[in-house]
Amino acid sequence: MRRRSASKRGEESEMRGKSFGSARFDEHLVVLTDPKSIAAEQYRVLRSRMEHLSQEKGARTFIVTSPVVGEGKSMTTANLAISLSQSRDRRVALVDCDLRRPTLHRLFGMRMREGFIDVLEERTPLETALVPIEHPLLPPGALSFLPAGKANAASPEWLGSSKTDKLITLLSERFDLVLFDTPPILPLADAAVLGGKVDGALLVLRAGRTSTETLSLAMQSVDLQNWVGVILNGVDFERSSQYGGIYATYQKTYSAHAIEGRGEIND
């Protein structure tokens, strides 16, 4: 019993630390776990478009939402943040503002800890709440994560406060880009409230699941003037008649170049 308790305490201490090895990352974070996949490549394509938008319009802060639950919103937000942080000399913050159903911490292999709501309620300084994400494929200090924190039923009311405005400003001054993961837009007002405070809003849809009617309702339910794009999640490139041939050619060519490159290095 004594040995098990010590082990448990050690596990909790390690989980609360600020350095997380690649083995802890959820497999759905494909930009890190499967960087040669077509899915990871699509996030890099999205990254280039986000970079262009940021440079053209000076946009730095974005919410990512979806019409309803189950569209893959949080996974998409995390992968996009990781991809953006892989560009050299860029600092990115990923913030979990889904205070009703936070999930981002689990993708990074963490237990819930102090975060966004704790900073707003002045229980924890921002410096303490921010968690640097470390991985061999990430430049040191490039990606910081702010968990949702110890939220309760009343916590979402903070999203409309002046303290949230100040925190967004502080994050935008410290980081080059800030992504906020928010709840689905149809059943809840959270995304609409926060969306009015940032530079842009992205809507995540799931291929084969999100109906045209649901999309229309989502776009009409909130009068956001800063919609910047829609992300189609869950496309099966291997089975798609449109992309199947492209995917096969990509994989074959990519593998050939990879083998050729290894040969040159070995020589």
UniProtKB/TrEMBL annotation:
Keywords: ATP-binding, Kinase, Nucleotide-binding, Transferase. SUPFAM superfamilies: P-loop containing nucleoside triphosphate hydrolases. Pfam families: CbiA. Residues 63-240 form the CobQ/CobB/MinD/ParA nucleotide binding domain. The keyword Cytoplasm does not apply. Signal peptide: none annotated. GO terms for molecular function: ATP binding; kinase activity. The keyword Nucleotide-binding applies. This is CpsD/CapB family tyrosine-protein kinase. It comes from Candidatus Manganitrophus noduliformans.
